[in-house]
Specification:
single chain, about 220 residues, alpha/beta, Rossmann fold, 7-stranded mixed β-sheet, two-stranded antiparallel sheet, 9 strands, about 25% strand, disordered C terminus
Length: about 220
């Protein structure tokens, strides 16, 4: 398989074909080696528009959803980003290439360890990885952009509270098979705007099937 050609086809035929036109996003996806972040044995599927299994019942997002997420956040290089759900580390790498710094959380230690090794191999050093259950707690401070890489049944208001003024939050909310990807933007200290982006079906965060106040 010609890796460079396969990656180019993924971007041009799949990602751009699903209404992703942000040239910074497309250029980054053409260069970043997605095949280095998929689990061993799945390299031949690295550029297919499918959710690749990672273990623990978790999956990588498909390239089209990755592209739409990145376009929605419209990072321009100076943002402090929070990622909820490190997974394979590929979206972490994307956010790190497009933003200034990334704090990425995952509930599984082995995902954090694997992602750390892959990010280091890719020369990405503006990421802080933490083992943390985001449905229970979040890092201190606020963020210019937040990417939630697993769905949640009900919007967690803590995620909105963690946005800095003019910050943007991408999250998929609802029950399958017809969940809604939404973008929430804080337009001021107390004002937020919610925009529906598209329907999809995304595996939930661990403990994301119920709002945190109902989880035991």
């Amino acid at each position: 398989m010609n890796i460079d050609y396969a990656r180019l086809q993924m971007v041009n035929q799949q990602v751009r074909g699903w209404n992703v036109y942000d040239e910074d996003v497309l250029a980054m996806l053409k260069e970043l080696p997605r095949e280095h972040f998929v689990p061993e044995g799945f390299e031949s599927l690295a550029f297919a528009d499918i959710a690749i299994p990672l273990g623990h019942g978790e999956h990588m997002m498909s390239p089209t959803i990755e592209g739409r997420l990145l376009q929605a956040l419209s990072l321009r290089g100076n943002e402090n980003v929070l990622e909820i759900g490190t997974g394979s580390g590929f979206m972490t790498a994307c956010l790190a290439r497009l933003g200034a710094s990334v704090t990425s959380l995952d509930i599984y230690d082995d995902f954090v360890e694997s992602a750390s090794s892959k990010l280091e191999s890719a020369g990405i050093d503006n990421v802080t990885l933490q083992q943390m259950d985001a449905t229970r707690s979040l890092p201190d401070g606020t963020f210019d952009a937040i990417a939630v890489t697993g769905s949640i049944q009900t919007l967690d208001p803590r995620f909105v509270d963690a946005l800095a003024p003019h910050g943007k939050l991408f999250v998929v909310v609802g029950d399958g098979p017809a969940m809604e990807a939404i973008l929430i933007e804080r337009s001021g200290d107390n004002d937020v705007e919610t925009i529906g982006l598209f329907e999809t079906d995304l595996a939930p965060l661990v403990h994301g099937a119920l709002p945190p106040q109902f989880a035991f």
